[in-house]
């Protein structure tokens, strides 16, 4: 199934489709599930999924209503968004700079909500006379250097806990593959857990996936919220030129 067909669908501005199988498309509302962790070895399509999520949101929201914070060690993968009107800032390649910008953003939004006696992003934007806040997506590409130590995991856990109320979503992709991905306590705080790693029976058995089977390239397993049984889906066919077409 081609990704371009998904962009033509008339859906809620914050509903995105992550993939499909024989029965249905996998739809999530990113306001209700504002953290997505994607893991996979190089070349398994985790970056494609990040692009597809961002482009679906861009296709339905103006640049006044949606901003992207691109974080990438190499700067290359997310540079197209930094050069667009949807950028909150240029690509950030330094972990400490990224943490400072995100901490400041979270503190600013928390203070605005407290000052105006509201509990969440939507309530704030419904106040008459205030300047509307854009929904912000933090896109972290190849996040190994950020989540490879206890401090990084704790930072991301704290960020995710605050995302729902502040109008901030975070999408993280990483090739930092480890055993028991779906059972790890470190991942319980993430709303959506996606893995492109189980491409062999050995991988699946090692990670305690029942009824394991080989996954084709471009297939993934996913858990959402408290659902603890991974389901299999396929990612959409993607052409890089659609990035420029959607941004322009």
- Derived from helix and strand composition plus strand pairing, the structural class reads alpha/beta
Molecular shape: globular
Order of helices and strands: HEEEHEHHHEHHEEHEEH
Mean pLDDT: 83
Describe this structure in words.
It contains nine helices and nine strands. The protein is α/β, with parallel strands linked by helices and 248 residues long. It has a single domain (3-247), classed as Rossmann fold, CATH 3.40.50. Strands 4-5-6-3-7-8-9 form a seven-stranded mixed sheet, with helices on both faces. The protein has a two-stranded antiparallel sheet with strand order 1-2. A hairpin with a 6-residue loop joins strand 8 (219-224) and strand 9. Helix 4 (95-115) runs parallel beside helix 7. The radius of gyration is 18 Å and the shape is globular.
Topology:
Layout: H1 3-7, E1 15-20, E2 25-29, E3 35-39, H2 46-60, E4 66-72, H3 79-82, H4 95-115, H5 121-125, E5 135-141, H6 144-147, H7 150-166, E6 168-174, E7 192-195, H8 201-206, E8 219-224, E9 231-234, H9 241-247
Parallel strand pairs: 3-6, 3-7, 4-5, 5-6
Antiparallel strand pairs: 1-2, 7-8, 8-9
List descriptors:
single chain; 248 residues; alpha/beta; Rossmann fold; 7-stranded mixed β-sheet; two-stranded antiparallel ribbon; 9 helices; globular
